[in-house]
Amino acid sequence: MEWIDTHCHLDEDAFTQDCADAVQRAVDAGVVAMVAIGITLDSCRRVLELTQRFPQVYAAVGLHPNYVSAAEPDDWKQIVELVKSPKVIGLGETGLDQYWDHSPLELQVDYFDRHLELSQQTGLPFIVHCRNAEEQVVTQLRRQASRSPLNGVMHAFCGSAETAAACLELGMYLSIGGMVTFKKNETLRQVAATIPLDRLLVETDAPYLAPTPFRGKRNEPAHVRLTAACLAELYGVSKEEIAGATTSNARRLFRLP
């Protein structure tokens, strides 16, 4: 079976000592590609360095909503330049976060629009972070979709059935992470089971949100297969079918070979 971890943060300090080992464990577990996500300009530069070190690692570049208030005036221009790098396959993560009070909502909205417009200009898919902001995110996506078709994914989706349906209607993919394996997340499992197989992705968000039985420990890309195993049970299909569908979907969305 082949897997693609569509969202991980391999440039985080948690991987400073053993990033190469973590990548190798993922490869040994059947992970054929990992999308390393940038969240600040410096982070984006680090993930691009990782793409040069590891053939299985690709990059998404952007400014996370929690960090846009700390961005320098020239940072966005430099992100746009980084998009030209050959192993950049996505934009973000972007979106809205009203759980943390790190950036004013109007500034988050501005940068979310910038990512969406850059996606429409370049054809690269965008990656959405959404926390305590489902209604606002859907409204902004609908506004952009009225101008041009959307090409993106809801990262670590844990929203409502209504939000899932709205995003699917807009042509989005939904990516499921380790939270779906948590014992008390029955509601998320019920929502996840409604996602059509041809719009489903899997991710780790490593080093965060490790699936059961590693909850509370550092997550890493090799663990993506544990989340996938949970999804196979939910869908009533084999792990091979989940692997085939999610890997095919990731290759299609991110234009991977």
Report on this model:
The protein is of the alpha/beta class. Helices cover 41% and strands 17% of the residues. It contains nine helices and eight strands. Strands 1-2-3-4-5-6-7-8 form an eight-stranded parallel beta sheet. 49% of the residues are buried.
What characteristics describe this protein?
alpha/beta, globular, TIM Barrel, eight-stranded parallel sheet, 257 residues
Assign the CATH class.
Answer: Alpha Beta
Strand order of the largest sheet: 1-2-3-4-5-6-7-8
Q: What structural class do the secondary elements suggest? A: alpha/beta
Could you give the order of the helices and strands?
EHEHEHEHEHEHEHEHH
How many DSSP H or I helices?
9
So, the CATH homologous superfamily?
Metal-dependent hydrolases
End-to-end distance: 16 Å
Radius of gyration, taken over Cα atoms and rounded to an integer in Å: 17 Å
Point out poorly predicted stretches.
Answer: none
Largest sheet: 8 strands, parallel
Q: How large is the share of residues in beta strands? A: 15-25%
* CATH T-level topology: TIM Barrel
Helix share bin? 40-55%
Total count of strands: 8
Q: How many domains comprise the coordinates? A: 1
Short structural summary:
By secondary structure, the chain is of the alpha/beta class. It contains nine helices and eight strands. Helix 8 packs across helix 9.
